Amino acid sequence: MAFLRTGRVAAYFALVSGVLLTVAGCAPNGPLREHDVTIDLLQQDWQYMPGVVADGDELQVSATSLRIVEQDGEGGQPNPPLNLVGTHLQAEGDFSLSASFADVTADASWTVYDSPPVIADEFRIEPASLRLTLRDETLEILIFDGSTPQDVTDPRPAHRERLTLLDPDALLEIHRSGNTLQVASGGDIVSSLPLGEIFDSGELWLGLSSELGSFHVDSLSATAPQRAELMAEGPAVAQAEQSADGLQALAERIRPGFTIGAAVALGPLASDADYAQEFVGNFGALTPENAMKPQFLSPQRGVFTFDEADALIAIAESKGMAVHGHTIAFTEATPHWMQTLPTGSEADRQASAEALLDYVTTVVTHFKGRLDSLDVVNEPFDVAQGTTLQRNIWYRVFGPDYPAVVSRAVHDADPNVKQYINENGADVPGDRQDALIELALETNARGGHIDGVGLQAHIYNLETDAIPADDLADTLNLFQDAGLAVRISENDVTADDGTQAQAEQYATVLATCLRSPACVSYTTWGVDDRYNWWTDDEGVLRQGQDFLFNDGEPTPAYDAMRRVLDS
Predict the structure, then answer these.
(1) DSSP-assigned beta bridge partners for residue 88
(2) Phi–psi pair at 173, nearest 5 degrees
(3) Percent of the chain beyond pLDDT 70?
(4) 153 contacts: CB under 8 Å, gap ≥ 6
(5) How many alpha carbons lie under 13 Å from residue 380 in its C-beta half-sphere?
(6) What is the number of alpha carbons within 13 Å of residue 228 lying toward its C-beta?
(7) In sequence order, which ranges of 428-531 are alpha helices (DSSP H)?
(8) pLDDT band at 228 (very low <50, low <70, confident <90, very high)
(9) Best exposed site among 200, 343, 384, 505 by fewest CB in 10 Å?
(10) How far apart are CA 280 and CA 315, in angstroms?
(11) How far apart are CA 321 and CA 314, in angstroms?
């Protein structure tokens, strides 16, 4: 009999094993046989999937409008959700999936991914997948083969076809049989294609979404024949354990209360055991890399998708980690509705101010009591290392005092969360650093509640961006004299000049921070270079070499950090 293990993520993120067998459904090579195994996926965990609500024996799916918008708020790449911390499947060999939809108001999409997409700041790397979209009597079949597109923000399917169904309410089925992939409706095969490499990982990740409407999922199951192996699994992070000699444990021995954190994404935490163990084993604080940015929390005005951020916080809580929220007021990663709020007249600005403050209050109230600290203002100054506030929507609505307005609203919603202004290029003495100190102090003079600043410490070029120990020590003393705490908030270091130079810079920043009472925590902006992607000026996808781990292995930079903490 096929081996079956089901996983369900509870609030404590422990993996619970059990067995679910049914006698409904069909096997990939014919009718269900006595020893075939079927998993009723409706009974699995859908708690943290945006746009999906489990209601008794069905799932209710509604449109989220999740997109990764361009910096000006226009366009953007669709970012449909999938079930990351709930159940995914491991299916070695042949399998069948079946689903039935009801009450489709516009469109219903069902996607089976080979692996979760990689979400970067401004794009999503589309993995191999099969997507079925039902619109009236039309079924659209899209296959993405996982290859790198010329434009990563506009992935094109390797196969597309549209079919007219005789009965759009009939059961939809996906069969893998040998090297063939079949799609069936009402028991009749409507498409048969070469499998290619789209399910080579042996994992199946499930997405349900609607672009414009809503629908119900009345049945959803997976079946495998006797000779195959079918397992339902929870997230990889459920099995990750804290290490007694990890970075956080070492830091705690020499400076109790000091936290070493990392910015993380939900996809690799759920799917990659190496990444999950690297993070949980070494870090004591979690910063959501993207999940708490405005475009991810509120893709439509008045609509909030807290699910992935809630999942990350639940992971941190289950592992005894602090959480740093990132971010409230920001120029980038802002949804179209927010960026286009009217500001032409006083009446416009008043109405837009109400919308923005409602966003702040709703978000901070939702996370109240679960965040240790929060970036209330992120990257306020001109991107070209200037000292002038960016004329973003917050500035256009509230004027140059917007940091104080936002800070007061955050404090009203959660008076206990520590508030930070986070900025790049202010790590060494200079005009930008002076402007950051002045902004923080002026914000508080206007009734704000800023506790400190985040110094991002991005080292993209060691010749121009390197942070000397003496300069950073002077910087920390300057902020301490101003009564402001400091977080090293987003440290990453290029390896373009070699891993030894990279390691030395990492060690310098951490060691200097540890020696200063003003520096309360250290965070690196990422964990493993396996998920470190960016696009060059020509839009070509590149992999960075900036983090403490690379493809599951520690880098010399990690070893240098350990030496700092173990000295």
Answers:
(1) 233
(2) -135, 145
(3) 94
(4) 68, 77, 122, 123, 124, 539
(5) 33
(6) 24
(7) 431-445, 462-465, 469-481, 499-515
(8) confident
(9) 384
(10) 10
(11) 10
Handedness of CA 452, 458, 464, 469 (dihedral sign): positive
Encoding tokens for residue 363?
A: 């978000």
CA distances from 516 to 1, 260, 477, 512 (A): 61, 15, 8, 7
pTM: 0.93
Give the containing element (helix H, strand E) for 204. Answer: strand 203-209
Amino acid letter for position 555: T
What share of the chain in percent tops pLDDT 90? 86
Looking at the DSSP assignment, which residues form a beta bridge with residue 175? 96, 182
Residue 27: in which H helix or E strand, if any? Answer: strand 26-27
Q: In this predicted model, what pLDDT tens digit does every residue of 84-101 receive, in sequence order? A: 999 999 998 899 999 999
Give the pLDDT of residue 35: 58
Token pair 């790449």 is at which residue?
77
Q: What is the pLDDT of residues 102-120, one digit of tens each?
A: 999 999 999 999 999 999 9
Q: Which helix (H) or strand (E) holds 309?
A: helix 307-318
Both tokens of 277, joined, read 């163990």
CA dihedral (374, 380, 381, 382) in degrees, to 10, reads 120
Provide the token pair at 173. Answer: 């089925």
Beta strands 485-493; 519-524: pairing state? parallel
Instruction: Identify whether 361 is preceded by a cis peptide bond (ω within 30 of 0).
Output: no
Which residues are bridge partners to 163 per DSSP? 139
Q: How far apart are the C-alpha atoms of 519 and 477, rounded to whole Å?
A: 9
Is the link from the previous residue into 148 a cis peptide, with omega within 30 of 0? no
Token pair 């899209």 in the structure block, residue = 142
Cβ–Cβ < 8 Å for 474, 442: no
Distance CA 539, CA 37 (A): 46
Q: Any idea of the CA torsion for 209, 214, 219, 222, to the nearest 10 degrees?
A: 0
Q: Tell me the torsion sign for CA atoms 241, 521, 501, 387.
A: positive
Burial class of 445 by CB neighbour count within 10 A (0 to 12, 13 to 18, 19+): exposed
Spatial separation of the C-alpha atoms in residues 378 and 393, rounded to whole Å = 13
Q: For residue 39, which of 204, 257, 161 has the smallest C-alpha distance?
A: 204
423/425 Cα distance (integer angstroms): 7
Phi/psi at 373 (nearest 5 deg)?
Answer: -155, 170
